[in-house]
Specification:
Radius of gyration: 20 Å
Number of domains: 1
Shape: globular
Mean pLDDT: 81
Strand content: under 5%
Number of strands: 2
Strand order of the largest sheet: 1-2
Length: 213
């Protein structure tokens, strides 16, 4: 078990592996963990566990979308990391269809999630920035993404289910406010996700010692 973990983690036994390759390997594991968080959010309601509009999908999309790691020559990995939001949206769609059936509102929720990821990628934050800076910026992106998602999906709900009048639109957004306040609590998951990503990708770089003459 120890050898397996060492192999996955590029631990002490892999002294010949470059620090960049170690960091990229660990970043891939971090992305896998974020993908699991996405799945947990969709699976818990199926099991009857609900958290009052608190979810891990947008925080995960924001953290992976905003925090980049610019090294490695794997073409397959580059494509996956660039299309993370699209790839992770597929299991979300499949789970929704499998357990809830095709719903008109999914046109807005699915595209809303994708838009949140695209928004995060515009910031292109570096894993090597200061932790406080990353946490602050990623949290702000998450808050903006959640607000956008709720405004966008509330509009979709109004468009699909209510008469298209100004009064019903206003009432829809007023009814959405309590849900949005709860939804904003999802941004609290961003700081530990950012810290986890930084800790996982941080590796020791050997420095040659200079001897005094």
């Amino acid at each position: 078990m120890r050898k397996l973990l060492d192999k996955l983690w590029f631990g002490k036994q892999d002294n010949d592996v470059s620090p960049g390759k170690k960091s990229l390997k660990r970043y891939k594991l971090f992305v896998v963990i974020m993908t699991l968080f996405l799945a947990i959010t969709k699976i818990l309601p199926i099991l009857g566990v609900t958290l009052a509009n608190i979810e891990l999908i947008i925080p995960s999309l924001v953290v992976v979308g905003a925090l980049s790691l610019h090294f490695g020559k794997s073409e397959a990995w580059t494509r996956f990391s660039q299309g993370f939001g699209i790839f992770t949206l597929l299991p979300i769609i499949l789970l929704d269809l499998l357990f809830w059936g095709l719903q008109a509102i999914y046109l807005f929720t699915w595209t809303g999630f994708l838009a949140c990821w695209v928004l995060a990628t515009r910031f292109d934050l570096s894993m090597f920035d200061k932790t406080a800076t990353l946490v602050g910026k990623a949290s702000l992106i998450a808050v903006l993404s959640i607000l956008f998602f709720d405004v966008y999906t509330a509009f979709g709900f109004w468009w699909i289910f209510y008469p298209h009048t100004r009064t019903t639109l206003i009432m829809t957004y007023l009814a959405q406010l309590p849900f949005t306040l709860y939804h904003l609590l999802s941004a609290l998951f961003v700081p530990p996700m950012v810290v986890l990503g930084q800790r996982m990708t941080r590796v020791k770089v050997p420095v040659a010692q200079q001897t005094s003459r």
